[in-house]
Amino acid sequence: MTIADLPGLIEGAHANKGLGHEFLRHIERTKVILYVIDGTGDDERRPINDYKILRRELELYNPEMSNVKSLIVVNK
Fold first, then answer.
1. Which of 14, 17, 20, 45 could form an S-S bond across to 61 if both were Cys, CB 3.0 to 4.6 Å?
2. Alpha carbon separation from 8 to 1, 36, 67 (Å, rounded)
3. Mean pLDDT value across the chain
4. How far apart are CA 44 and CA 8, in angstroms?
């Protein structure tokens, strides 16, 4: 089993912003992606948007990632 923890994945990571490719290259062997989303949100940030940003970054980095099974966990 391969597990990759991608803390701090930020918008623009697909373009190597922040740690970008250093994080993203680890996901290519992953069979299942578990998205852990902060469910608290606030006026500036909504949990669904956080999820969409993460999905988008993975797909922009490697379009094949949209075919990987995934689960979403919301924490508080």
1. 14
2. 22, 12, 23
3. 81
4. 18
